[in-house]
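Example record

One chain of 489 residues, shown exactly as stored in the release files.
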Amino acid sequence: MSAPQRDNEDDVPEMLDADDALEEVQDTEGDIAMDSDDEPEEITLQNDSIAYFDAHKDSVFAIAQHPTQPSLIATGGSEGEGDDAPGRGYVFDTSPVVGRPVLPPSYNADPSAQQQKSTELKALFTIEGHSDSINTLAFTLPNGQFLVSGGLDGRLRTYELSVDGHNKPSFAFVAESQEVPEVNWLAPCPSPKYPNTIALGASDGSVWVYTIDSSDSANPMQIVQSYFLHTASCTAGSWSPDGTFLATVSEDSSLYVWDVWGEAAAKNLVNDNGQTVVSLTGQDQRFGVEGGLYAVAVDPKSTFVAVGGAGGSIKIVGLPRVGVDSQPVSSKQSKSKAKGAEAGSAQGGTILADLQTQSDGIETLSFSSKQPLLAAGSVDGSIAVYDTSRRFALRRHIKEAHEEFSVVKVEFVAGLGDGWLLTSCGMDGVVRRWDVRGAASSAETSLVKEWRGHRGDGEGGGVLGFVQGTTGERIITAGDDGVVLVFEA
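Predicted structure tokens for this chain:
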């Protein structure tokens, strides 16, 4: 069968003319280099950890350490990629991790000799029952009898710790409560007079205090107090070290210091509302912080509270003294002491200092337990250290502590360095330790050591928190990359 005839000459393919085929094209530019985007990118990975825990399938938002068995670590986060991914947490033990020996100087010339395998940690217990991310965890004080988890689902779940004859820990679910839309933070009461007491702040601005008693099967989670003065999300809370007061702050720029146990009320030191010893809101122009408050801490002597918020603003507010015995005056010396107590009580709610060294929001505050120091970490990547004994004079401003990335947490090391050592973490994925003695301000002159291993630089990484015990000899981190790392100081 013959091929069909073409009706249109335009359908005939164009052919190269024979003379054109013989024409040579001169190369005047030489070889053209490949686009730099096609060149392989060299990435240097550094992992300083001695152990890791990678059971989380998503970001690790919360981390807590047992107060008497510091090797017991609890972590919590989300599982899955969805916005409504159920929360999940784990408890693991770091005691099997062996520290790395100090290598002789001769090993410095051979980096491969210094690389030792990191220990993989396994979960002892899985925290379940939340329908949204676990974003806060805490062990109760003073003995860590209970582990409490708080989630973005508003649930507060409690687990009791038991240790058998072989020193093997186990956890059993006790009860749960759901009174709020979202739990923002948890803080255990440090007073031994009120053991197993926990406070929480919620997204609706409410503040709740629970006491846990597993022997009371009818009501194991007893509501001690509930407060509703904040008009926006309650962003942070801190007990005074003696457990007398609970200080909370909010996005509405308010600070309330609650008289949880009625000790101040017994001495007529509460405000007109009958609940607080300090009530400051954004309506007070001297105190107002446009953009809200996001960090709070009480000094070791429970004499004043520091709050930090948007724009790098820090306010220092006095607290009343309620621990002075009100006994009859019988001598000049006792009269002098009584006048001192009255002066201390009168300063409750007084704004003692207004600080603004950093250029962006204050995310974290920490007092040294041994030195008169207050440290503040900012979204601008800097750390400021103030001398509380000298009218809160600026002692040090480390402007690029975590480069341009937000500082997530700062915490002084309680049992190491006489209170001068400060640990910090940031969204750059790095943990650093600083010596804040002297008046130097550069990162180079302050830095003692740094630990790397998490992703950072805004690439789905960063360190969202850490614990370091009282000695600071080991630092355990919560990574936005879904990994928990153990570093050795």
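Notes: Residues 1-12, 40-44, 105-111, 325-346 have pLDDT under 50 and may be disordered.
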